[in-house]
Amino acid sequence: MTGHYGRPLLIDLYCCAGGAAAGYRQAGFDVLGVDTDPQPDYPFEFVRADAIGYLSAGLPRRAAAIHASPPCQKYTPLNAYNHHDYPDLVAPTRDLLALTGLPFVIENVPQAPLDHPVILCGPMFGLRVYRHRGFEPGGGLVIAPPPHQPHTQRCARNGYLPTAARPFMSIHGGKHSQAWQRAAAATLGTPWMTTIRQVCEAIPPAYTRHIGAAMLTAAGYPAQDAA
């Protein structure tokens, strides 16, 4: 990525394929992604590193805000049945984020141990998917969510394309077709994503574009032109 060095820099921890990053970029940030796994489809500058270690080592001088999406598998309803031993990284991440003095947000599924999270959902932003995600603000960040309307539209079955009778997509894991993957990516606003896993784990950029505007205010920057 070529930086726009008049823009503030947001650090995107546990970044995966960059759904959150795209929203922050649209809001006016440069973005640097950090993940332990290779992310060949990540659309911005990327560093392969452990997020906890990266935070502990100190952030770039330009860093103005931080987004963190610790792995969610430990907190999902499915794990209440399979009882796998997944890492619990919300609290350790929060402790290190608080030490930076920067505005930050921790994103996860609503069942995660977030502190007073704001819950965002697709129809708040005109998206045809019911995808609830919790966002815990910190470091002076205040997030005002749009109205959360009742879920009145019917969803297509997981793995099936939407229809006039069922216009909303169910975007969850499975052995789905390429047509389904492309439709899911378009529904979320992440057309660069190429795998089913990426879209099933993605944060819709519309969510973080909304949060990014509040991030700019909390970090002391004026609103930026989207790009």
Q: What is the level-2 CATH architecture name of the domain at 9-147 and 203-218?
A: 3-Layer(aba) Sandwich
As for the CATH topology of the domain at 9-147 and 203-218, it is Rossmann fold
CATH homologous superfamily of the domain at 9-147 and 203-218? Answer: Vaccinia Virus protein VP39
Helix content: 25-40%
Q: Would you identify the regions where 5 or more consecutive residues have pLDDT less than 50?
A: none
Strand order of the largest sheet: 3-2-1-4-5-7-6
Overall outline = globular
Proportion of residues in extended strands: 15-25%
Q: What value does the Rg take, in angstroms?
A: 17 Å
Number of helices: 7
CA(first)-CA(last) distance: 13 Å
- Element-by-element helix/strand order: EHEEHEHHEEEHHH
Short description:
The chain has 227 residues and is α/β, with parallel strands linked by helices. The chain is built from seven helices and seven strands, in the order βαββαβααβββααα. The protein starts with 8 loop residues before the first strand and ends in a 9-residue tail after the last helix.
Task: Write a concise keyword list for the protein shown above.
single chain, 227 residues, alpha/beta, Rossmann fold, seven-stranded mixed beta sheet, 7 helices, 15% strand, globular
Task: Give a description of the structure.
The chain has helices at 19-27, 51-57, 79-82, 90-100, 178-188, 196-201, 205-218; strands at residues 9-13, 30-35, 45-48, 63-68, 104-108, 118-120, 133-138. The chain contains 7 helices and 7 strands. It is an alpha/beta fold. The protein starts with 8 loop residues before the first strand and ends in a 9-residue tail after the last helix. Strands 3-2-1-4-5-7-6 form a 7-stranded mixed sheet, with helices on both faces. The longest helix has 14 residues, at 205-218. Helix 1 (19-27) packs across helix 7 (205-218) and helix 2 (51-57) packs parallel to helix 4 (90-100). The protein has a domain at 9-147 and 203-218: Rossmann fold, CATH 3.40.50.150. The protein is globular and about 50 Å long. Helix 1 (19-27) links the parallel strand 1 (9-13) and strand 2.
